[in-house]
Records
---
Amino acid sequence: MSVQLVSDTAQALLQIQNVSLEYQTRDRIVRATQGVSIDVYEAERYVLLGPSGCGKSTLLKAVAGFVAPAQGRIVLQGQSVSGPGPDRVVVFQEFDQLAPWKTVLDNVLFALHASGTLRGAAARERALYYLDKVGLSAFTAAYPNTLSGGMKQRVAIARALAMQPRILLMDEPFASLDALTRRKMQEELLRLWEEVRFTLLFVTHSIEEALVVGSRIALLSPHPGRLRAEINADAFNLQSQGSPAFQQAAQRIHGLLFEQPAHSTPPQAEQALA
Ligand SMILES: Nc1ncnc2c1ncn2[C@@H]1O[C@H](COP(=O)(O)OP(=O)(O)OP(=O)(O)O)[C@@H](O)[C@H]1O
């Protein structure tokens, strides 16, 4: 009998129940996802993977409460999501998500103050704690325009973790970084997860990134996105990248996404799905 990662009887932290998402444009309705059902459990690193336009970002925005489902519902810890809240924090791809007129420390403090999460010395202590966790203790007084792209993303991650959200939402957070920095950030994210054990919902269109970052991966079909399969990726990390098992998993995912037999697609160093 095989051992399952997740107990069937455990209550999922996040339940995406038969969710269809739509945009109303001037002349038509664009359906982004179709009847997607996903359960995400406490301390999972759950990845949404699929080709460009399959609705990954829209699904993440719906969990964040920015987009209301046209059908189905999203439930976080037993409560229906009906709008944004400090229990869900998003880290985006863009480097301009920090306030440029605030220092690194003030960017983190502002989130804590504005959301009513913490004030005074307690807020400062928590902000400094998470800035230290992302290796930015020496840059608390710096302004965003003096930081590299990777450092800005670290501030955004520290700011998000400082909120101690029930779930951290990341929308292709490393996609604008060069390959080396991206790898380093993946490594840091996994190290942070080992320490803090937050629950993560992570969007990417890179098969490799999904396997490295995720403990489970949802494969979404092309537009409109439907759940095609869920893959257990707990066995993989940056060290296993390039191993035969890793390459096989990447090949299998590629096959599942594009409905090709797994053996017909040679594995590549980086399999992006754009
Ligand atoms: N504001 C919008 N108005 C109308 N249609 C939209 C809007 N945002 C997204 N869409 C459409 O919804 C679908 C899903 O888009 P979404 O950005 O969620 O996909 P994605 O999988 O995240 O893609 P990518 O990997 O390219 O970011 C696409 O067809 C897109 O054109």
---
Amino acid sequence: MANPAFQLPIIDLSSSDRISTAQSIRQACIEYGFFYLINHGVEEELFQRVFEESRKFFRLPYEEKMKMIRKNYRGYTPLYAEKLDTSLSSKGDSKESFYIGPLEDIATVGKLNQWPPAEQLPLWRSTMEDYYQRVLNAGKALLSLVALALNLDEDFFEKVGALDKPNGLFRLICYPGELGNGDQQIYGASAHSDYGTITLLAAEDVSGLQVCREKSEQPQVWEDVHHIRGAFIVNIGDLMERWTNCLFRSTMHRVVPTGQERYSAAFFFDPNPDCMVECLKSCCSESCPPRYPPIRSGDYIEERFRLTYI
Ligand SMILES: O=C(O)CCC(=O)C(=O)O
Ligand SMILES: [Fe+2]
């Protein structure tokens, strides 16, 4: 049973008291691995434009969308093509998505982005590029506070190379309303934790997102994450969990079908692929040794993606 009183902490990115904000982030990441982020610099009006353009794309005929089929993690992913919970035997998750990677044209990866033709959706690319850049800025500001929350220098993530050509992967998602197949095991997004550092999620006010704070507890307790207008829902990913030796939780979450169509936009703020992620000194000791060996960020994320696609 979902607990109606469940409420995630709220973090104000614009607060001038950085030390106390960092403290609140630390507590939120230890207890929940999830929090709301407000006053983050991305206007609500831009959220709305992103969802408007996203809706136009997903409503295009199937053949048109398939012309932009995902290549090298950029472009369109059709219904049931991804399964986030790799232990499920059912077909894939009931969602369509569209991935946009780094924008800089100096990076070879940037060149792989696909865009709907301007004649078809004239405002699409500029809207998504604008959003991408702004979320990247919010994510960088947030990461400096996360560093403070871990008693590190604010520019720690820059110094370890995580933000060299930062690897933001932006995914527009459309969950269909009616499934019409009565299959109990079909989720919009099946249970998973995110792969990277932090995720900044924007969603329309349609329920469905749930978190499970104690993944090993049985039966699992799933709690509904409510919508707060204009706020990002931020969560810690697995690479951050590895960095912090599980001090910060990469919490399991999912999207359950509610019969209502749902649009969301998830921005996975991941380290540069060459960044080595290894247990922070402040998060291990003789009695609490590192639980994971160091790993190259790109290798870790690549492998997780490989397992996700059917
Ligand atoms: O759409 C949502 O609310 C969550 C999406 C999600 O968890 C993901 O894509 O990793
Ligand atoms: Fe997720």
---
Amino acid sequence: EHLKIAIKEFLLFSDQIITFFSPYVVISFPEYEDYYRYNHAFAAIDTYLGAKAIDKAQKLKASQVKESKGLVLKRDEAKVRDEYQGVHVWWEIVTDTDGYRTQKLTFHRRGLEIVTGSYIKHVVEEGISIEAKTKKMKLFTNNPSLNWDTNNGSLWRHIDFEHPASFKTLAMDPSKKQEVLDDLEAFRNGKEYYKKIGKAWKRGYLLYGPPGTGKSTMIAAMANHLSYNIYDLELTAIKNNSELRKLLTATSSKSIIVIEDIDCSVDLTGKRKKGDDDLRVKKDGEQRKEDENQSRVTLSGLLNFIDGIWSACGQERIIVFTTNHMEKLDPALIRRGRMDMHVELSYCSFEAFKVLAKNYLDLDSHPLFGEIESLLKDTKMAPADVAEKLMSKNQIIDVDGCLKDLVQSLERRRKEQRGQDDDDHKKKPGGKKLRIFRGLF
Ligand SMILES: Nc1ncnc2c1ncn2[C@@H]1O[C@H](COP(=O)(O)OP(=O)(O)OP(=O)(O)O)[C@@H](O)[C@H]1O
Ligand SMILES: [Mg+2]
């Protein structure tokens, strides 16, 4: 009996063509569906089988490692045998001429019910749970050149995401920080809730504020807090709305989709588009066609996505927009419901400073804190600039030196800012009033 199995296995493993009459069934799991959509079952299967192969290899190690330096733990080269509820199965990874990989599962017809009924589910679930335990988060970026050959067909390029940012070290108003944390937590545990109210399990955040106030840092902290992957979407590198759709539907669940500096992304504001149209009128037909082909992502494309396809494509996704200029954004883009939460990151407050002092200098209090507090009240300095002053030079922490440095640069900046305010008043009287007016509407 053993011999029979061994022979059968040999035949299978020798890439014998399985004929129509074969008692064996083969099921394929391609890495990409429709050439661009990553098949997440593929990764889970790979992880599960990788763990199996390593198990086996560890047993083999003692006797084999010395003789055969060819013994690699890499899954792709191995055929893995598995057994589940008495059913023997064989996994093999095959690569086609275009470089696309497929997991092939072979088993005897006898086991069909068990395999399709529960084994596959078991493999994918095991794989996902192993992935979660050993999870390395990933940072995906869309690839402007779309080099299909070297990019293995994927629209997204990824690297391991290792950023130390956390909510603990993020310097901002503590109650605002808590609000964001609570919101994220509610989202994470919201599966049943979203189902109950019949809404897609998605959430949108708009982070706004001047440069260096921690918007990007907060996104990293969010990803670390939730163990989500980040998809950093570069809108200006996307040719058109259909490419945008492809990219977004190719993202996985438990991820944060980030669009930074949304105000700088082409064609998002009506104004800029109008300017283009004016230009276009003067051009001949051919040129116009070319321009249209080149036309980038439009505001309506993005809004359609958020409202429509967005809700249809998978679950458990967060979308984050950042901007330095809230006032430049089209109201349609930021109305509530599209962006569920607006978070303002602003100049360094004393509360925020205390977090930075703890992070950088391990300091809870200091005689200079009082002076710094009063300086921060009427001086605009971004946390990034404060942090820079607190950073140790040459690895030597000089608390007094750092704080004195900070006080000096705050004083300098306060003088500058006061001067600027005066200039503003002289140049355009009533300018300030106008700003308040606009803010009210
Ligand atoms: N609120 C903050 N808490 C802690 N560190 C901060 C904070 N803000 C800025 N920093 C520090 O300053 C650096 C720059 O901040 P970050 O890139 O998050 O700013 P940003 O708001 O994204 O700016 P930009 O608008 O230019 O993109 C970070 O690497 C971080 O070390
Ligand atoms: Mg940033």
---
Amino acid sequence: MASSQHPSSIADREPMLRVENLQTAFFTDKEVIRACDGVSFDIKPGETVGVVGESGSGKSVTARSIMGLIKSPGRILDGSIQFKGEELTTKSEKEYRQIRGGDIAMVFQDPLTSLNPVYSVGNQIKEALRLHQGLTGTEATKEAINLLEAVGIPDAGRRVREYPHEFSGGMRQRAVIAMALACDPELLICDEPTTALDVTIQAQILELLDELQEERDLAIMFITHDMGVIAEIADRVNVMYAGEIVESAPVVELFENPRHPYTRGLLRSIPGNNPDADRLVTIEGDVPTPNEPATYCRFAPRCPEAFDSCDKVHPVPVAVNDDSEDHAAACLLYPEDVSQSEAIDVHRNAATESEDEL
Ligand SMILES: Nc1ncnc2c1ncn2[C@@H]1O[C@H](COP(=O)(O)OP(=O)(O)OP(=O)(O)O)[C@@H](O)[C@H]1O
Ligand code: NI
């Protein structure tokens, strides 16, 4: 799925999903957790957008916000989510049910959360086919077998009658993907679908997604904390930290020229990427809970390059330099082709403008 394998035309397409300034918060007894704090990005048809970041950075909340799955004490406070030009944040639960599993489907880390143990795998796929494509009877059975074959389940004609517990972990996740495909979605959101699987099976599932994307022109949002998986699957990458996208770039550009100190840290922590280290290098410290408005850089306490202003000015995503429209970083070191004080002003002014809007 690396961009080199794709027709260059993806870049010229209109976005299918447009997320703008998404703010999703959880109101707990103790604090307000700003799990998504001003998240903006696009996904184009046929494109795979990887979302990467440590645990607690807001990846799943971003996905659940798009799927209309944020439940109390959580709420979308502000921002817009547009799918093919339609605003999703104002949809009712009933309207959202049509969208979920219709135009947009989601695959979770644990396949058992999507499978019902008391129905055969085939019956669950057939139910999705009935709901979303109006297929019933032998027609539905035939299509269910086709889908199981399409996701690489051998002996599909027999296995269609089996129950989830009769499938291995990898086969279950394939079955869940088949169920997602039964809805013929245009956007597939995958939240760490391979994390629980061993590496060989993981590689097979990634390859499967790649093939399905090519056949069906699927747009994919792929969440992982694994930079290796990102390298394998993404066309574009959003790096998240404490509720914000701190860097966004095409995958090759991100790996060759990471700009945000957090991204650099993540890349150094890939085994084998740091020949000097005799152990896995990780970034010292933890992701802070984003429980207050961002009036500073949330990464500053862990950042090897932090300076005075990082505690006082909130960095917003800016083009890293004049030549690169497609590569943004939310860090006071950018844009890199102006003086440091000018760069800081860019961020300070952007922050004041957004305050004026509120
Ligand atoms: N139901 C909830 N109630 C309270 N806080 C929540 C809830 N769901 C998520 N959060 C908080 O929102 C923040 C973002 O969580 P999220 O699950 O999106 O992280 P993530 O990037 O997906 O992490 P992981 O890699 O562990 O899956 C965290 O601080 C988390 O504690
Ligand atoms: Ni998550």
